[in-house]
Amino acid sequence: MSETSLVRRTKKRSPLKLLLVILAMILLIALGTAKFIKSQYAPMSPGDTKQVDVVIPPQSNAHQIGAILYEKGLIRNEKAFLIYIRRNQLDNRLLAGHYRLSRGQSLQEIAEVITQGKVAGINFTIPEGFTVKQIGDLLVNKKICTHEDWNKAVNQHYNYDFLKDVSPYNLTPLEGYLFPDTYSISESTTSEQIIKQMLNNFRQHWSREVSLRARRRGMSVKETIIIASIIEKEAKQADERCRISGVIHNRLQQGMMLQLCPTVLYCLGQENKDNVSYEDLQVDSLYNTYKYPGLPPGPISCPGAASISAALNPEKHNYYYYVSKGDGSHYFSKTYSEHLAAQRKYSK
């Protein structure tokens, strides 16, 4: 009886063992496949920054581009490139052009360069807080365009939703919306195409998440960018952005005059000046926040992502004033008398 029972129990466990073996084999195969795919996506030569010129002809499909990259020694496997492109639905986003890539880039990084059209050519960086005029001056100095071409392009109409709310009282229609970043263009790129590239970059950064955050605060794109542009000019230290934003929001909520020097200097075309004079404060402009309540009619610079985030995430506090301490930081005050004392202290 005991031998028969043992045989039966053994037979009942055999299918379970077989299933476990099969599952283990499937898991090992899956892990092996994932490891293999990951290895195919890895850089050919990590740390190698030597540039390789790659020209992708117009109308090239993913298969042809993969072959070009493989021939240049930039990817390990054409099929891995195709799998990545199709898995991420990038087939129709691959752009022709002249690219400079390296063997230190992963397959994913190479695909990103090609889908974003980061063609080789002229590179330039727009610092955060630059005005449209300063951007134009930078491009002219780099001989990318002329003042005439830039001014003409700036005053063209551009069909973007976030520009529909731009005030007719703006000194410059596109102020605040030419997103500061590093750009790569070809020698034949026009001023208008550069502006569109910057506006597309702004649209990308004004993501669904940022838009929802603005709506929750009851703020429009225009209001957000105006406040962000002021923060960009006022905050010399990154950790003060949200605190300065809190001061601006506090003053607006109390119906107080903002009295911000950068808005006055902007309408005077003196953005690089450190201090305002008594004569400066007499200028009759809607940008003069010492004379007119509320926000100015438009942004006073082109803010970056950090200042936009600060505009939508003001620090909660009871500060209504701040004064420069002369080292890039500010002293924040809750009362006007405290503010006057701080002015006397730090103006010495």
Number of domains: 3
* SSE-based structural type: mainly alpha
Count of alpha and pi helical runs:
13
Biggest β-sheet description: 2 strands, antiparallel
Given as residue ranges, the uncertain stretches (5+ residues, pLDDT < 50) are 1-7
Overall mean pLDDT: 89
Strand order of the largest sheet: 1-2
Q: Termini distance? A: 105 Å
Structural summary, described in words:
The chain has 3 domains: 51-115, Endolytic murein transglycosylase (Dna Ligase, domain 1), CATH 3.30.1490; 122-205, no CATH class; 221-346, no CATH class. Helices cover 47% and strands 8% of the residues. It contains 13 helices and 6 strands. It has helices at residues 2-41, 62-71, 78-87, 107-115, 132-141, 147-154, 191-205, 208-216, 221-234, 241-253, 261-267, 305-312, 336-346, and strands at residues 51-56, 97-102, 122-125, 182-185, 321-324, 330-333. The strands form 3 sheets. The protein has a two-stranded antiparallel ribbon with strand order 1-2. A two-stranded antiparallel ribbon has the order 3-4. Strand 5 and strand 6 (330-333) form a beta hairpin.
